Amino acid sequence: MECIVCGKETEEEKKYCKYHGEAHSKLYETYERWREARPISWKEYLDEVYERDETGKWVREIIDHIMQ
Known about the structure:
This protein is an all-alpha fold and 68 residues long. It has one domain. The protein is 60% helix and 0% strand. The longest helix has 20 residues, at 18-37. The mean pLDDT is 94.
């Protein structure tokens, strides 16, 4: 299969390549921690993460894909 974000080969039946898969997992894990710290919606979280200078290319691409 191919990654639904970039078209690179994926492992077995996964929908993301290893890079986008890791970015996707970390994005969801981190959201849980943010929600514990303060009330924030999923969209607000994605917007804030996207705008941060330290956010990497793969995370931004995952956010773009989610927001479609």
